[in-house]
Amino acid sequence: MKHIFSAPAADAAAGSAPTLRIDAGWDRILQHFFLTIWQLDAQGNQAEMLYTTLSEPRGGGLQSLDELIEKVEAHQVEAPEGFYERLYLDEAFEESSNAVKFW
User: Fold this and answer.
1) pLDDT tens-digit readout, 30-44
2) pTM of the predicted protein model
3) Which residues have C-beta within 8 Å of that of residue 30, sequence separation ≥ 6?
């Protein structure tokens, strides 16, 4: 299952809080977490990709939920309540589908 949420992120240098979109989930086939972080423009469109697990050297994914949490927190984004718990359950129960949950 793919999980998506948008949230403001602190941007101390610019003195503003750009909105970021987080796309994350568990890939049952590849046995890793995936994550993409986008900065959105004023209209809410994806303007700039800030991070993607496709750039990771270990086959394009993150091996643990802790790694995913570190990547999200490095962008100064606070996930909605229950977001990380749901990702944990997706991994634990091998939940992987084309469904999308918007938080």
Assistant:
1) 999 999 999 998 888
2) 0.87
3) 59, 60, 61
